[in-house]
Amino acid sequence: MLMFDRELVPTRIALLDLIDERRLVREGYELLDEKRMLLAARILRALDELKRQTAALRASWQDVQARLREALAAHGLNDLEAWPPRTTTVVLERRTERVLGVEIGTTSADLRVGELAWPPAGPAPTIDACVEETRLLLARAVPLAALETTLTRLADEYVRTERRARAVENVVLPELEADLRVIESSLEALDQEEVVRVHSRRASAN
Known about the structure:
It is built from 2 helices and 2 strands. 74% of the residues lie in helices and 14% in strands. It has a two-stranded antiparallel sheet. The radius of gyration is 34 Å and the shape is rod-shaped. The chain has a single domain, classed as Orthogonal Bundle (Helix Hairpins). A hairpin with a 2-residue loop joins strand 1 and strand 2 (102-116). It is α+β, with helices and mostly antiparallel strands.
C-alpha cells in the first residue's frame, strides 16, 4: 500500500475524512497482523509434521538398506540384477483446501505391487522384503513432498503479509498521523484567528 502526496485542506470535513481513513487503515492493519500470527502458527505446525515425516522417511530408508543387504547376501549381485521386475500401480489421492487465502493440500500414495514379469528361479523372501520396504519408502516420500510444497506456499504468503503489515505500520499510519497533526494545527490556528477577529470587532464597536 502506497501513500501519495496530496494537498491538505484544513477543514472540518477533511479532518473527519482523515480520522475515518485512519480508523479503516488501523482495522486493516489488525486483520493483517492477525493473519500474520495465524500463518506463523500454521507454519510451526507444518514444521513439526515435516520433522515427524522426515524421521519416518529416514527410518524407512534404513530399512530398505538393511533388506537390500540381506538380499545381496542371500542371492548375490548377479541374481538381483537378473531378477524379474514387478509391475507397480501408483494411485495418488490429493485433498486441497484454502487456508488464509493460500491453497494447500495433502497427497497420499498407494503403490500396489503386481505380478513378476516372468517366473523367478525360486522363492526369494529377502527380495520380497526389499520390494515391500521400497514400496513403503516411496509411499512415505509422496506426502512429505506435498508437505514441503505447502510449507513453501505458507512461507511465501507470510512474507507478503509481513511486508504489507510493516508498510501499514511504518509508512501509512505515520503519514496519516502526520496529516492529522497538520490539519488539527491549522484548524487550531484558524480558530485562534477567529477569536482574535471577534474580539477586535467587539472592541471597535465599543
